[in-house]
Each structure stands twice: as C-alpha cells, then as structure tokens.
Specification:
There is one protein chain. This protein has a 6-stranded parallel β-sheet with strand order 2-1-3-4-5-11, with helices on both faces. A 6-stranded mixed β-sheet has the order 7-6-8-9-10-12, with helices on both faces. The chain is of the alpha/beta class. The chain has 12 helices and 12 strands. Helix 8 runs parallel beside helix 9 and helix 10 packs parallel to helix 11.
C-alpha cells in the first residue's frame, strides 16, 4: 500500500498539522523539515496533488491554448514552455484550437473547468472577448506571440513590424526595387509584418504594385505555395520576395523549385524563423530569427507572478527584438 501522511507522523513523531503545513508549501522549523523529508524518501511517499489542490486552491497546472499544434513554430514554443514550467514545478495542459475561434472558446471553458492556475494563449484571431470567462474566474492569462486589437492582457511577442522592415531593407540594400511579400492579412503577426514591409518600401520611395502583395488567408504552406506561383507567373515578376512565416516560407520554396527558376539568381528570398528544415535548404536562407526560448521563459515568469500574487498591476506587454541569420539567398543586383 502507498504511504500516507499518518505513516510520516509515526516515523517522525510530528503532528499531522506540522506535516500538512510542510506538504502544502508552508514554513516549518528546519529540524522538522529534515525529519519530514527523510521520512518521505524512506517511505516513498507521493503527494496527492488533487488533495493538495483542495487545500491550496492551486493545481500546479498551466493551460496552454494554441491556434494550431501542427505548426512547427507552435510545437517548438511548446517545447520551451514545457521545459520552463517543469523547472518551476508545474505541468502543462494543451488544447489545440485548430484555427477555429469557436473551438478556442470551448477549449478555454475546458481549461477553466480543470481549475488550471493560469493560461498561456496563442490566439487564433485578433479579438479577446473569448477570454472574459478567464477574467471572471480570476485566472491569469498571458498572450504569447500575438496580441489583440481590442483587449489588453499581459503579452510576450516580438517586434514584428521592425523585423520585416529590416528584412525589406536587406533586399533594398542589395539594390532590389521590385520586392514582393507573402503573408497573412487576418493574423496579428501577418498584419504587423506587412506594415514593416510597407514602411521600408515607402521610406525608400519604391512602388508597391498590388499584385506584389499576396496577403490572403492565414500563414500556411498552401498560401506560400500559391502566392509564390502567382508571383513567378507575373510578366514583371519581383526580384526579391519576403516570406511572412515559416510555413509560408516552405510553401514558397517548393513553388520556386517547381518553376525551374533558381534562388538567388532569378529570385532572392528572405524568410522567418530558424527552425529545423532551414538547416537543410540550399542555398542557405537569409532569416529573421525570433528569440523563442527567451520569449517562453519570460511568458512563464510573467504568468507565475500573476498566479502567485506577486504582480497585480496593469497588463504588461514585452516586445523582443529579432536577429538576422545571414545566408546566400539574396543576390546583389548592383
């Protein structure tokens, strides 16, 4: 039979109240702590987290809402979040919203019903009304990667607008004037990245033909593939293309490979995210790189500060800078 708290009482001679206080995270005398820990090890006692939760009103579980678990960026972020939560003694309960806002709302209710201590959110859309239920339940929320147009929550993201401004300028510095972009126009990150593209083009006094902006739908392999095919079929095709996210980048590269044209001789490319597949692509791509591990560490720290009552102020937004990985995918036209 599994050891119980009464077995620890017999082994240590301490009161149930003292042992319970220790097990629930309270402070006990150092000599009592040593006795209890020795007994736990000898008896192989395992804490009943459900019972502890009834006392502490904490489950040591963090809910994570993601827009699409198939997205490799999301998968990598979950890896870093899981490692960081484990370090802090928390488990992770993941719900995939499958890019469906109705399912996202249902997933939130599921997490709240499981009494999670806090929720990390990779949001499907740009509106935060669905999170009102978490506010009402006093469950802290931190947005990761994407913020909202209409609601303020703690948020950890990158400066997407500046990131793609820099990417566009990298092509401009290499004497490109005909520059296109493939990105989402219904996702927060996509919209911000297109703004950065427009900023750089306008600052350089360069024309942005309507057909150079492939902005439909969500970031996806299919959108990248279709967008690149359409660009390459133009009579006056672009000399440089910015691929708005990792999945879009892979789709765009496949379309380019099928076309018989080459990079960078015919078309120069710059993409986003230094994820595994980019290591085997040739030529080596110029990439905008997000500090994914640092973002996850900060998101967990912000959330646990709310969970533990260490932070009670107004919502805080942390925006990290990106870096650039140099490659061989941009041709200097000068």
């Amino acid at each position: 039979m599994a050891a119980t708290i009464r077995d620890i009482k017999k082994r240590t001679g301490l009161s149930l109240a003292t042992i319970s206080k220790y097990l629930n995270g309270g402070n006990v005398l150092p000599e009592n702590r040593i006795l209890i820990e020795e007994a736990i090890n000898e008896l192989h006692y395992e804490v009943n987290e459900l019972a502890r939760g009834l006392v502490t009103h904490k489950t040591k579980t963090i809910g994570v809402l993601v827009y699409d678990i198939q997205c490799l960026f999301v998968g990598s972020m979950l890896h870093y979040l899981g490692m960081e939560l484990h370090k802090k003694g928390y488990g992770m309960l993941i719900c995939d919203s499958c890019n469906d806002e109705k399912l996202q709302k249902e997933n939130l209710q599921f997490l709240l019903s499981r009494k999670v201590d806090g929720i990390l959110v990779f949001a499907v859309g740009m509106h935060g009304k669905f999170l009102h239920a978490a506010k009402k339940a006093n469950v802290p929320v931190v947005l990761v990667d994407r913020s909202f147009q209409d609601e303020e929550y703690d948020c950890v993201e990158v400066d997407n607008r500046t990131a793609i401004y820099r990417a566009t300028n990298k092509l401009i510095e290499n004497h490109h004037k005909k520059i296109a972009v493939i990105a989402s126009n219904i996702e927060y990150t996509g919209r911000e990245r297109v703004k950065g593209y427009s900023d750089a083009m306008n600052q350089a006094g360069l024309e942005i033909p309507k057909e150079y902006c492939k902005l439909g739908g969500r970031h996806s392999f299919e959108h990248g593939y279709r967008g690149m095919k359409e660009l390459l079929e133009l009579e006056d095709r672009p000399t440089g293309v910015i691929l708005g996210n990792y999945n879009t980048m892979l789709g765009g590269i496949m379309a380019l490979n099928e076309s018989g044209l080459s990079c960078p001789q015919d078309v120069s490319l710059i993409g986003v995210d230094n994820l595994p597949m980019t290591q085997v692509l040739r030529p080596k791509l110029w990439l905008i790189v997000q500090p994914m591990e640092t973002m996850c560490e900060k998101a967990v720290a912000m959330l646990l500060e709310r969970v533990n009552g260490e932070q009670n102020g107004m919502p805080v937004k942390i925006s990290f800078s990106t870096s650039v990985r140099e490659g061989d995918s941009i041709r200097d036209l000068g």
